[in-house]
């Protein structure tokens, strides 16, 4: 059974295997259904989830297509039934039913009131029971005690043992009488022990007779012994006749002997003719011999022509010879052109000659260049400053400094601040600070100060030795809080900082007797709070402590909360909320439903403004902390039409389906709607025999229809198609009660199986002259008229002429122009021939067998020819 059911309209056959007992009621029921071909129903449990308490099952209607009995005396006999589904009734999960256990009479009866004694003739529940020795139902003659089990049968099931004397066990079920169960000691005295290897038999001759076997001496007298190599035969001639073999003398007289190397052939010329070979003289006269190196060729010129080669003289006249070094080229200029090279004269005219001197200096050794050679011939030898003198040979140092625009050391010391003085040589320190912008920095023994600008400004940043730092106001003598935009809190105390940063308070206690709704507005901050039960305006009268969480959304002009929400939790885990709106609490406390609570609403509004759809009603399914699936219900407005969408999702396989209907009651965007069965009405009207109905689904690019029932005079049909392109497939019961499934296009499947059990057939005959019939059938490629697609196959009329059993006919309903007003297509019937390609396969199998028989005969003949040729060749080789 394939568990890939979802989305299928049909299910593959289901194999049912039982340990077969002909008298078993269940097996009798299956045999009756098979013999009468009656339809019945089975339920298959696909998946059982004990943790979730859910059971997935599929319910099928069908018939038994075949049955097969297997087994022998050494194995369990089984019956295999092939259940052929005709209809998928349902496929859906359900709760696992509870297991029924009964024990009406308790356990263990000892005569006390706590353990009641079993009294009725038959128990109505599972019980430990006692059957007295005097009871007519007692098979042993002594008291029996044991267990009686009840399973809604006419009789109960027992297993009992004797209470005194020899230990004996008895058992029975609902359909069999008492049966004695032997203990191991009783079995040892009653049965043969395996380890004794039959030595405990009392009469060996009777045992052999019962088993129909011979003793060793009887076997030796009756049969031949292998090591004697048939020497015990009483008539060798008769034995050879039975085996259809020759004696040694007959074989020597009838066949060529290998040791004679074909010398015992009567006529060698005839033998060579039969083998199609030549004698040595014939071969020498007919073929060139290797040792002659072609010297026995009769016409050398013709041989060279046949081989496409030249003689030595022809090659010398046609090709340049290596030894001539191209001196035998007939046209040197043309040859240079062909290989793209210059002559000597062309090279001299094209390229610069080789350089051998520079300015008259030969390049055969080092070249010494004079001043004139490098353009310095006019340079004189006047006196120059020497590098080694470090300018000490200057004639006028002051003039040299003037020419260079530099000061002396004394002038620099008088004009510039010296590094070694660390700015102590500054003439006006305050002016310097102003010039370099350092007048904003001030110091005192107790602090360091930084002012924002020169002039009168009360703000400064100060740092004190004790670690205090921040913005100080000189005019008020107070610290200035660092604003939020600068990374501060904008406050100088914790409460104002929490208010400015909207940080909730950490579990402040609300005093007893407080009106909490007024207190939260006056308290003025978000946070977490707790209290006892002695408060005014609590959500309810639950005793014990309460915890509150207040979130301020917007403050009013007085900086008090104007909008926000309170969440309250009692010590019994009940949760409430209340909304602050414009400084008031207009909606009162609302209890918040939790996961396992029942929620009751008069009306739920899922509003969204300026959005494509409304809010969604979403349900999630979790298992083991993992979301397995969900559903959503929402409203949207598309193309001027209001629509409601119901979506279902399976998150494990990323699969979903949705159903959408509009304000007019029309279905839209149906996706995966038919993954499971879709029923209209109760089960009693699921099959329509006297009338038909057509469901026309619009709103898509191509409207489609689904027809079922008895349209157009057809007995019973289910058809699917599109209004524009006609029918796609239909299944129907014909007037002759035969069943028919037609597809108007290509069918793809992993397998197509046909019932072929021998038990289903009679008048079985082998197809005769199969090869001749195959010759009468052609294989063709063709184009199908209705869709223009290329195909390959056979012609039904040709098959009908030679194998009518493999040809049939079918009715094709041709669509006529224009549907009726209710959308049902108009059509007329046409009948065409069809081919059962399984019948063609049977024909090809038999043709192959006939061909195989012919090939086998030819192979035997060829084998004999090959053996004879090999034998003749050996004779020739040894001649």
Automatic annotation (TrEMBL):
Keywords: Coiled coil. Residues 844-878 form a coiled coil. It comes from Salmonella infantis. This is Tail fiber domain-containing protein. Transmembrane segments: none annotated. Pfam families: Peptidase_S74. It comes from the Bacteria. InterPro entries: S74_ICA. Residues 756-862 form the Peptidase S74 domain.
């Amino acid at each position: 059974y394939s568990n890939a059911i979802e989305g299928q309209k049909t299910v593959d056959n289901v194999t049912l295997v039982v340990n077969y007992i002909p008298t078993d009621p269940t097996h009798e029921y299956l045999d009756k259904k098979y013999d009468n071909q009656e339809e019945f129903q089975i339920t298959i449990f696909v998946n059982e989830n004990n943790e979730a308490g859910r059971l997935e099952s599929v319910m099928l209607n069908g018939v038994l297509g075949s049955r097969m009995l297997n087994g022998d005396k050494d194995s369990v006999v089984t019956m295999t039934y092939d259940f052929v589904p005709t209809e998928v009734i349902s496929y859906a999960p359900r709760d696992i039913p509870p297991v029924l256990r009964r024990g009406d009479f308790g356990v263990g009866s000892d005569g006390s009131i706590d353990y009641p004694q079993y009294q009725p003739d038959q128990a109505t529940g599972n019980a430990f029971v006692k059957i007295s020795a005097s009871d007519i139902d007692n098979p042993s003659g002594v008291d029996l005690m044991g267990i009686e089990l009840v399973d809604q049968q006419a009789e109960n099931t027992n297993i009992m043992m004797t209470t005194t004397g020899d230990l004996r066990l008895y058992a029975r079920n609902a359909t069999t009488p008492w049966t004695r169960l032997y203990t191991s000691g009783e079995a040892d005295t009653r049965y043969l022990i395996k380890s004794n290897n039959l030595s405990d038999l009392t009469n060996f001759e009777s045992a052999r007779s019962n088993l129909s076997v011979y003793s060793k001496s009887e076997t030796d007298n009756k049969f031949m012994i292998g090591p004697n190599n048939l020497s015990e035969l009483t008539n060798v001639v008769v034995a050879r006749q039975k085996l259809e073999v020759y004696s040694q003398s007959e074989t020597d007289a009838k066949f060529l002997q290998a040791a004679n190397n074909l010398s015992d052939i009567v006529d060698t010329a005839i033998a060579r003719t039969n083998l199609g070979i030549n004698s040595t003289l014939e071969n020498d006269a007919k073929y060139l011999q290797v040792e002659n190196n072609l010297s026995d060729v009769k016409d050398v010129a013709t041989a060279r022509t046949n081989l496409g080669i030249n003689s030595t003289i022809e090659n010398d006249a046609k090709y340049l010879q290596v030894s001539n070094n191209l001196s035998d080229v007939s046209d040197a200029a043309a040859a240079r052109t062909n290989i793209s090279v210059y002559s000597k004269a062309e090279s001299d005219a094209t390229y610069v000659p080789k350089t051998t001197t520079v300015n008259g200096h030969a390049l055969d050794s080092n070249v010494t260049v004079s001043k004139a050679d490098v353009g310095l011939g006019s340079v004189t030898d006047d006196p120059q400053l020497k590098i080694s003198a470090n300018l000490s040979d200057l004639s006028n140092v002051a003039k040299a400094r003037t020419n260079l625009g530099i000061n002396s050391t004394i002038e620099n010391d008088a004009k510039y601040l010296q590094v070694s003085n660390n700015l102590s040589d500054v003439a006006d320190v305050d002016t310097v600070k102003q010039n370099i912008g350092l007048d904003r920095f001030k110091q005192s023994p107790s602090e360091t100060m930084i002012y924002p600008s020169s002039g009168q400004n009360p703000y400064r940043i100060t740092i004190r030795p004790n670690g205090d730092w921040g913005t100080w106001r000189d005019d008020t003598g107070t610290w200035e809080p660092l604003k939020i935009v600068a990374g501060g809190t904008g406050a100088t105390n914790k409460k104002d900082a929490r208010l400015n940063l909207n940080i909730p308070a950490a579990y402040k206690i609300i005093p007893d007797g407080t009106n909490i709704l007024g207190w939260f507005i006056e308290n003025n901050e978000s946070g977490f709070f707790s209290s006892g039960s002695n408060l005014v305006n609590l959500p309810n009268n639950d005793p014990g402590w309460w915890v509150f969480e207040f979130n301020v959304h917007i403050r009013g002009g007085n900086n008090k909360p104007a909008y926000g929400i309170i969440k309250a939790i009692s010590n019994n885990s009940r949760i409430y909320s209340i909304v602050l709106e414009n400084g008031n609490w207009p909606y009162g406390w609302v209890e918040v439903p939790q996961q396992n609570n029942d929620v009751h609403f008069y009306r739920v509004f899922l509003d969204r403004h300026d959005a494509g759809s409304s809010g969604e009603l979403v349900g999630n399914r979790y298992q083991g902390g993992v979301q397995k699936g969900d559903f959503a219900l929402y409203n949207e407005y598309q193309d001027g039409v209001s629509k409601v969408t119901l979506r279902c999702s399976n998150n494990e396989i990323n699969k979903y389906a949705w159903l959408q209907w509009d304000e007019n009651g029309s279905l839209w965007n149906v996706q995966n709607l038919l993954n499971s069965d879709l029923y209209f009405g109760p089960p009693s009207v699921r099959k329509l025999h006297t009338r038909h109905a057509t469901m026309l689904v619009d709103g898509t690019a191509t409207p489609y229809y689904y027809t079922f029932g008895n349209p157009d005079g057809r007995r019973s049909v289910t058809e699917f198609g599109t209004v524009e392109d006609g029918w796609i497939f239909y299944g129907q019961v014909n007037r002759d009660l035969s069943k028919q499934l037609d597809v108007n296009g290509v069918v793809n499947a992993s397998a197509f199986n046909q019932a072929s059990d021998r038990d289903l057939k009679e008048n079985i005959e082998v197809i005769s002259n199969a090869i001749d019939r195959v010759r009468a059938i052609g294989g063709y490629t063709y184009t199908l008229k209705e869709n223009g697609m290329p195909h390959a196959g056979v012609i039904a009329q040709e098959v009908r002429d030679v194998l009518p059993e493999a040809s049939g006919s079918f009715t094709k309903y041709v669509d006529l122009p224009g549907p009726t007003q209710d959308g049902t297509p108009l059509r007329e019937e046409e009948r065409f021939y069809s081919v059962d390609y399984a019948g063609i396969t049977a024909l090809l199998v038999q043709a192959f067998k006939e061909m195989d028989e012919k090939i086998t005969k030819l192979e035997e003949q060829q084998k004999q020819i090959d053996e004879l040729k090999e034998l003749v060749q050996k004779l020739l080789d040894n001649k």
